[in-house]
Design brief:
binds D-malate; 12 strands; single chain; Aspartate Aminotransferase, domain 1; 7-stranded mixed β-sheet; 13 helices; Aspartate Aminotransferase, domain 2; alpha/beta
């Protein structure tokens, strides 16, 4: 058997690796607490589950759904954008349903990156952007993020040659993994940059609803003219605890939505219609805003708990305003991977090594707040007993 050469370029998927280490530790009898993957521990709201169970009994949902997503789902996404961001979208041409935003981000790359092209990718960044660029034969050009630039890339520093070769630029705010946030002024600069260099701006907004201290994260489409050069990816996973349901959407540039549709119609056959109908419930039921406020309060409480311990231990960590992650420097003398191994071996706690998100992630680790308060407290007690900054 001869595997394609492109597979050799791909490192094992980060969370599959972490899961392997977790299973090995569990098999050794360790009571492992995972602060690894961002997978909400709380259940999907009852009104959404209730709608799914009702719709699953309707046989008309059992057939292939429309390729772009049901008209109702696309209208619900457009309604959400108009109510939440004041952005009006044409559900026919500017919205497409996805089997989770990860699927859409991966497929979009195939629609925009040819061998020899380049993608501007934030470093650290969610691995899917860069991996699919490599699979498509493109080159990844990192946009460094650091606390010194508030985790916003310095677009003026992108070399001329990179601007010319790049066909796409990936951004994500609130950011995974750094928890950095972007305001509309930054988005306006990014849109201008994309327009000037004929680059598609791809904004991953999976964490747009996970914000704290009264902060409301913007959509890139709020920038005047953004829809001509930008496409934004959204997910129902994080706001509504629906990671296993696999439902997301892309909105914005007609050309980008159409191109993504070409890859998708030749690849998948859409998400189960009953799930899309439950997604309509999530996006349009007035109870959703109340649910989101409660979800924010839960993560804010957990953020404060985690931050309190880290600061007490002398870890110079920043107060995040969004995402359910904490991004913190490892103690002196450790590498990211060494630190992750150390806390797994000494404390039975899984943290994600920052280096897994790119070279600029070296020296950091990420903690996800998606587990019950008692377990989170216990994880930090165990950390406190074996690490010091
Ligand atoms: C993460 O932990 O980075 C995310 O949960 C991964 C994902 O959304 O696919």
């Amino acid at each position: 058997m001869r595997r394609a050469g492109r597979i050799a370029k791909v490192p094992p998927y980060l969370f599959a690796e972490i899961d392997r280490k977790r299973r090995e530790a569990v098999a050794r009898g360790v009571d492992v607490i995972s602060l690894g993957i961002g997978d909400p521990d709380l259940p999907t709201p009852e009104f959404i589950v209730e709608r799914l169970t009702r719709e699953a009994r309707d046989p008309s949902t059992h057939r292939y759904p429309p390729y772009q997503g049901t008209a109702d789902f696309r209208r619900a996404v457009a309604l959400y954008y108009s109510q939440r961001f004041g952005v009006s979208l044409d559900p026919e041409t500017e919205v497409i349903a996805l089997i989770g935003s990860k699927e859409g981000l991966a497929h979009l790359t195939w629609a925009f990156v040819d061998p020899g092209d380049a993608a501007l990718v934030t470093d650290p960044g969610y691995p899917v952007y860069g991996i699919h660029t490599l699979l498509a034969g493109g080159q990844v050009i990192p946009l460094p993020l650091s606390p010194d630039n508030d985790f916003l890339p310095d677009l003026d520093a992108v070399p001329e040659e990179a601007r010319e070769r790049a066909t796409v630029m990936f951004l994500c705010y609130p950011n995974n993994p750094t928890a950095g946030t972007a305001d509309l002024e930054f988005f306006a600069r990014a849109v201008e940059f994309a327009r000037r260099h004929d680059i598609l701006l791809v904004h991953d907004s999976a964490y747009v609803e996970v914000t704290f201290d009264g902060y409301e994260a913007p959509s890139v489409l709020q920038v005047e003219g953004a829809r001509e050069v930008a496409v934004e990816f959204g997910s129902l996973s994080k706001p509504f605890n629906m990671t296993g349901w696999r439902l997301g959407y892309a909105v914005g540039s007609r050309q980008a939505i159409e191109a993504l549709g070409i890859v998708k119609t030749n690849t998948d056959s859409g998400q189960f219609e009953a799930i899309q109908r439950a997604g309509v419930e999530a996006l349009t039921n007035p109870l959703s805003r109340e649910f989101i406020s409660g979800m924010r309060a839960v993560y804010q409480r957990r953020r404060d708990l985690a931050l309190g311990t880290l600061l007490k231990l002398g870890c110079p960590v920043r107060l995040p305003r969004g995402s359910f992650y904490i991004w913190a420097p490892v103690p002196t003398g450790h590498t990211s991977a060494g630190f992750a191994t150390h806390v797994l071996e000494r404390a039975g706690v899984i943290v994600t090594p920052g280096s897994a998100y790119g070279d600029r992630g070296e020296g950091y680790f990420r903690v996800s707040l998606t587990l019950p308060d008692e377990r989170l407290e216990e994880a930090f007690q165990r950390l406190a007993a074996c690490v010091n900054w």
